[in-house]
Write a structure and sequence with these properties.
Elements: E1 23-24, E2 31-32, E3 37-39, E4 44-46, E5 48-49, H1 51-59, H2 67-80, H3 82-85, E6 104-115, E7 119-124, E8 148-160, E9 191-194, H4 223-236, E10 243-246, H5 247-251, E11 258-263, E12 283-291, H6 313-316, E13 325-334, H7 337-347, H8 358-370, H9 377-388, E14 392-393, E15 399-400, E16 405-408, H10 414-423, E17 427-431, H11 434-439, E18 446-447, E19 452-453, E20 465-469, H12 480-495, E21 497-501, E22 506-510, E23 515-519, E24 531-534, H13 551-559, H14 570-585, H15 594-610, H16 618-638
Parallel strand pairs: 11-13, 16-23, 16-24, 17-20, 20-23
Antiparallel strand pairs: 1-2, 3-4, 5-6, 6-8, 6-12, 7-8, 8-11, 9-10, 12-13, 14-15, 18-19, 21-22
Helix pairs in contact: 8-9, 9-15, 15-16
Length: about 650
């Protein structure tokens, strides 16, 4: 038997209401959602009820089928019907969360910030309705041991994907609760969150349900009790609670952190074996069932030894109004923020514009960026190839094709940042002055007392453009924490890896984060960047060009960074070899070495990509040498 997944919604013209009736239309066989449609002044939210579909699939299970196999069939069913349903599934935000009923089918765009310890559910197998996804609230004490099954869940703590930086979120919407985060003085682009509302279990490991030598648990804690304990914990620790910052909070006023529950054995929607497991900073679109009742069962023999200790309730079970729970039915991974943007463009193609010749488009992009650089076209050309750079790794794990850039001699960063925000999917500006460097770690650090990975400004998804702003940096004393922050930033720039501090040990995770450093004078990390370029402002009248129609073309051009390395034909290799030998012979002592040659080849590939060429040609190679000659002249004049 098959169960067609057809969900329909009816727009309501009267004020928002909540309809409790949930049924399947007998005449059409289509699933009618409960609160069919919620109308707001800015958006229409379709709230879907998938319970009848799940229960019908569950009722067709074969004898001996495990709950994991049932979940797999449900997940595959959703995936098969996703093409026509995706746009109808509401995107969960702070603006519609309070109107979405428990058990509704929703989707979120998120980034894995931490991976919690695995949980276990004890579910009955003799009921008429599916026990998965907390669709039916039950207690294992009501069932015999042979009628229950234990099933593992992977628990992911996620933060919202930052919206595209050229979008303008609606700042007039009110928050879902009377919760007012305090602003941070460390970074003007971040917001504080109470650690206690995002914490993981403390150092006492939670006790699991035993498979043997134990009777079924007897009690269940209601969500209201958990939230009361959460409030009590906040009030008792208000004088000692510290705050932490994260750029996703301020960049995503519409998004919400979320705890994703994934039944063990689920895999991502990707044929690549490397994407079959969960990794930190992975970008996901999750489609699942919203639940607002986190429950747990005490230890069967001693109520004092419950699954979660009392002090862990505020960390493992934060208020659902702050951190909702979602049972994942289907997950779509994205390789980078650019890949996610390309998927959004595919689903919502832009209106057809007049095509622009590739060479002219690259020249317009240089002039557009030069507006924030004092009309310095050389700096604009270097910035274009920097934006197109992407980290590639060889089999030996060496990093190629990256191009980190330091623009020095700037007095203000905001004019340039405002231009970059219009054309990049995500731009994160991290202030690098002495106060920020001394204040705390910029890198992820494990809090062993609470068994959680603390939020950090540098824990970013692939494809995020990072700007290290050293312009406000002045003379001052730095402490040991500042020196460690500088070393981590150097490692990020030179090796494209981010260090995770676990106090007793550390490990580095590969990243793809194009990094731009802007500074007044010599940068703190000048020896780690690939290119240092002094900016020379030209006080001349610029062309009066309307760049607004070209912005979509600029975004499309930058999305081409996801392509592989361009071919460097043998003819160009011969020319490059001859030019390299000539340059070394004309310099005494030689100032160009093999590292410079590799960088020239990389720049030629990126410059050809900006012209939308299929391979590098001799004209592009000569242009790279001309750019480098002018850059070296500026460096010599600056000394």
């Amino acid at each position: 038997r098959t169960c067609p997944l057809t969900l329909t919604g009816v727009s309501l013209s009267h004020p928002p209401t909540r309809l409790s009736e949930r049924n399947v239309d007998a005449s059409s066989g289509s699933l009618v959602p409960s609160a069919c449609t919620f109308i707001t002044t800015t958006t229409t939210v379709v709230i879907m009820n998938i319970h009848p579909v799940i229960h019908q699939i569950y009722s067709t299970r074969k004898q001996g089928e495990s709950l994991e196999q049932t979940h797999h069939r449900i997940s595959c069913h959703v995936k098969q019907n996703l093409g026509t349903l995706f746009e109808s599934i509401p995107l969960l935000t702070t603006h519609n969360y309070q109107h979405v009923q428990e058990g509704s089918l929703v989707r979120i765009d998120c980034i894995i910030q931490d991976i919690f310890d695995r949980e276990m559910e004890c579910l009955p197998t003799n009921g008429a309705k599916c026990p998965l996804y907390s669709l039916e609230h039950h207690s294992p004490s009501c069932h015999r041991r042979e009628d229950t099954q234990y099933i593992d869940l992977d628990i992911l703590y996620t933060v919202p994907v930052p919206p595209t930086t050229h979008s303008s979120p609606n700042d007039q919407d009110t928050p879902m609760e009377d919760v007012s985060p305090t602003t941070s003085t460390t970074n003007q682009h971040t917001q504080h969150l109470q650690e206690t509302s995002h914490d993981q279990p403390s150092q006492r490991k939670r006790k699991r349900l035993h498979h043997s030598n134990s009777s079924p648990p007897q009690k269940k804690l209601d969500v209201r009790d958990a939230e009361n304990l959460h409030s009590t914990s906040l009030s008792n620790t208000s004088t000692t609670t510290t705050t932490t910052t994260h750029p996703f909070v301020a960049k995503s006023p519409d998004g919400m952190p979320c705890i994703i529950k994934v039944y063990h054995g689920s895999s991502l929607d990707d044929s690549n074996d490397e994407s079959s497991s969960f990794r930190l900073t992975s970008i996901l679109t999750v489609i699942g069932i919203l639940t607002q009742e986190p429950t747990y069962f005490p230890h069967p023999h001693d109520e004092k030894h419950s699954l979660f200790h009392q002090e862990e309730l505020s960390t493992r079970l934060p208020s659902t109004s702050l951190v909702p729970r979602l049972y994942a039915l289907h997950m779509i991974p994205h390789a980078s923020m650019y890949a996610m943007q390309r998927e959004q463009v595919r689903r919502h193609p832009p209106s057809t514009n007049n095509p622009v010749e590739p060479l002219a488009l690259a020249q317009y992009l240089v002039k557009y960026l030069a507006q924030g650089l004092g009309s310095d076209t050389l700096a604009g050309r270097y910035l274009v190839i920097h934006l197109l750079s992407r980290t590639h790794r060889t089999r030996e794990l060496s990093v190629i094709n990256k191009l980190t850039l330091n623009l020095c001699g700037l007095t203000h960063a905001e004019p340039l940042l405002s231009l970059l925000r219009q054309i990049t999917p995500v731009l994160v500006d991290v202030l690098c002055d002495t106060d920020t460097l001394n204040a705390g770690p910029l890198y992820p650090r494990k809090n062993h007392e609470k068994n959680k990975l603390e939020l950090s400004p540098l824990q970013l998804p692939a494809g995020t453009h990072l700007v290290l702003n050293e312009i406000p940096l002045t003379e001052g004393h730095v402490n040991e924490q500042a020196l460690k922050n500088i070393n981590v930033v150097k490692q990020l720039i030179s090796q494209q890896t981010l260090s995770y501090d676990y106090e007793f040990d550390s490990y580095s995770l590969p990243v793809d984060i194009p990094t731009l450093v802007v500074s007044r004078r010599k940068s703190l990390v000048h020896d780690s960047v690939d290119v240092v370029l002094p900016v020379q402002a030209k006080h001349q009248q610029t062309e009066d060009i309307d760049f607004a129609p070209l912005i979509p073309h600029f975004r499309t051009l930058l999305m081409s960074r996801e392509k592989g390395l361009l071919n460097f034909p043998q003819l160009c290799k011969d020319v490059a070899q001859q030019d390299f030998v000539r340059l070394r012979q004309t310099q005494s002592p030689p100032l160009i070495n093999q590292v410079d040659l590799a960088r020239f080849i990389n720049m030629a590939r990126l410059l050809a990509l900006s012209y939308q060429c299929t391979e590098v040609n001799e004209r592009v190679w000569k242009e790279v040498l001309s750019m480098e000659k002018e850059r070296r002249q500026r460096l010599s004049a600056r000394k």
